[in-house]
Amino acid sequence: MRCHEAPSPNFNERALPISMIVLHYTGMQTAQHALDRLRDPAAEVSCHYFVDEDGAVTRLVPDDKRAWHAGASHWRGVTDINSASIGIEIVNPGHDHGYRPFPEPQVDAVVRLVAHVKDAYEITRGNVVGHSDIAPQRKRDPGELFPWHRLARLRLALPRPTKNLVDPMWGEAAFCLALERFGYDVGNRMAAIMAFQRRFRPELIDGEMDAECRMILLALLLPKPQGDE
User: Fold this and answer.
1) Pairing state of beta strands 49-51 and 57-59?
2) How far, in Å, CA of 155 to CA of 177, rounded?
3) Mind telling me the catalytic residues?
4) Of all helices (H) and strands (E), which one includes residue 133?
5) Model confidence at 229, in pLDDT bands (50, 70, 90)?
6) Which pairing describes strands 49-51 and 85-90: parallel, antiparallel, or unpaired?
């Protein structure tokens, strides 16, 4: 797809094939500050694509190289997320600088970009994730305001299940085992539950496992979860 070029020196060689897409927000006061940092050799951070609020897409690192966006992270048994993923930074000041909804032109551009990357590398819906999914103890982005339902309706990400929900009546330990099976690092139970809620039940992020969370997680573990329609 068409994009601007602003090369970053912060990359190295991949050790794994591309199997994931990780969405971030920039979490800085301005887009320029974020772009400058992602291109600063001293910062040692980068991404593959950068999506501004007006929908402009900039490529910083070629797809075949390992950008440095994930940090210490884990998803479905993979710990070198940088080697296995395409990292997309979405301009938004984030929770520390005035978190706000993502503008329509920006969301439209993210949808097109995710569709392009997902198709190019045959990435499964379950491996299109947020930074908070892969690093729940450290990260909250892209956060509860990110419209995951827009991606889900186009089969670009997993939906929030809404149909045929059944409560498995798990206790917290069983719920966390199910979270781990789904893909999360559950080393910190509350952080893992909050990350799950931020993604699949964003209207209430309290770190408490409840019936609604149990029903959503069970449906996600079953074939062909239905929702976000």
Assistant:
1) antiparallel
2) 26
3) 89
4) helix 131-134
5) low
6) parallel
Q: CB–CB of 38/89 below 8 Å?
A: yes
Compute the residue count for the chain: 229
In terms of Cβ atoms closer than 10 Å to its own Cβ (0-12, 13-18, 19+), residue 27 is: buried
Which helix (H) or strand (E) is 90 found in, with range?
A: strand 85-90
Q: Residue 4, exposed/middle/buried by CB under 10 A (0-12, 13-18, 19+)? A: exposed
C-alpha to C-alpha distance for 61 and 128, rounded to whole angstroms:
19
Residue type, 196: F
Q: Side chain identity at 20, as an amino acid letter?
A: M
Distance of CA 21 to the CA centre of its chain: 7
Give this prediction's pTM: 0.97
**Is residue 57 within 8 Å of 38, Cβ to Cβ?**
no
* 67 and 117 Cβ atoms separated by less than 8 Å: no
For 86-123, write each residue's pLDDT tens digit.
Answer: 999 999 999 999 999 999 999 999 999 999 999 999 99
Distance CA(87)–CA(50), nearest Å, equals 9
What does the DSSP assignment read for 25-50? E--SSSHHHHHHHHT-TTT----SEE
Rounded-to-integer distance, Cα 157 and Cα 127, Å: 8
Q: How many helices (H) and strands (E) does the chain have?
A: 8, 8
pLDDT-based confidence at residue 223 (cuts at 50, 70, 90): confident
